[in-house]
Amino acid sequence: MKILFVVDDYVIDPLGIGWLSAYLKKAGHAVGLKVLEGRVDWQDVIDDPPDMLCYSVTTGNHLYWMRINSAIRMSLEKPGVCNKSIVSVFGGPHVTFFPEYICEQYMDIGVRGEGYEAIVDIANALRDKDTLVGIPNTVMAGQVNPLRPLLNKDTMLYPDRDLIYRNPKNRDNSIKNVMCSFGCPMSCGYCYSKEHKRLYGRRTAEIRPVGEVMGEIEGLLRFPLELIFFQDDIFPVYDKAWLEMFCQEYPKHCDKPFHIQVRAEFVEDDAIRRLKEVGLHGATFAIESGNTPLRRNVLNRKMTDRQITEAADVLHRHGVKLRTENMVGIPGETWQTAMETLRLNVACNPDIAWASLFQPYPGTELGDLCAADGSFDGNLDDISGSFFDTYRLDVPEARRYERLQKLFALAVSSRITRALLPLLSKLPLSYNETYVGTKARLYKRLYKV
Fold first, then answer.
1. pTM of the model
2. Disulfide: which of 30, 57, 201, 294 matches 94 by Cβ 3.0-4.6 Å?
3. Superfamily for the 174-446 domain
4. Is the pLDDT of residue 374 over 90?
């Protein structure tokens, strides 16, 4: 079977697709990748049509991938173009939490939850002309099948880097991504983590054995590599035994620096010292809101201002670069609370203060709250494909929050911009060029090795 994954142009390694490809190839299937960049045409797909078209879909880009799939299928189904049946398979978070998405023409099968085994079952059934009915984790013709247990992460294949790095631009990117764990042990109000735990009956993340992570990293060394970015929701600093083994093994297998993502309340001096000794270069933690009641009671993030600033102090003391993450316009936000977020970031003195616009994802606690109070109409199709462009809540300061998000990183790093922010945020300007330029400059500093 020929399987083709269709993806947008990417910088961050699409590891999920890499893992799916690894399992498909192990089962004897051929896997290709179509990257959409610039002016897109389907001639290469028409010249060598696949048996399966596959898409990974998140809420906000679900209509986009529906349209892309329709365009490809209509091109292939013109008279005389393709003499075989094509099956379109959609997976990813959107299908997991909204299986009713699989209802339109050309949308044949959905895959919910973890898809490594399900996609192989689909490909095998098509190859063997067997029934697709009843395959666990799938959605088809209105039938939502049960989820199978999660795959044992101790014995996972490594992601197919040859597929991910087929494009020289991605292969030659000196920053490569690795995951040590899957899922998140926390349950913030704006995230689907709580619902994912409910679906699978889990309470925490799945942590891969250190030896498996090191084996994957050794395979990365055949590609251009200057920095590893561990893409975990939370790097497992909270597991002391795992962390100690990681610190023992990492320098035996790799001499490259790395970046991690953590929670402020998990940042401890000894752990950061040990990680710094073996290559820790940078760390990201989320502040989200500088207003304590909003952070604790609305976002369900229980850390204190002191824990946040002390975490930043620990990282600075050990010479670790810092990126903070924030949200502008959370439910209950005012201009004053947004300025508290700005001030707390200034106190942390990050190399870059990353900021997004709150999105009311239906099915999350906060998304449902916004639908209930009327600040959001609950329409999935109104969710933006990016949390950096359009603010969706119907509140008086909406446009001001959009401008603040574009100016946030610059305001944290520039006293002059902070002083002018009350005026700049009211001017009818987009600040897109300022945002792009500031982001490029500060990220260059963050990732400088």
1. 0.95
2. 57
3. Aldolase class I (3.20.20.70)
4. yes
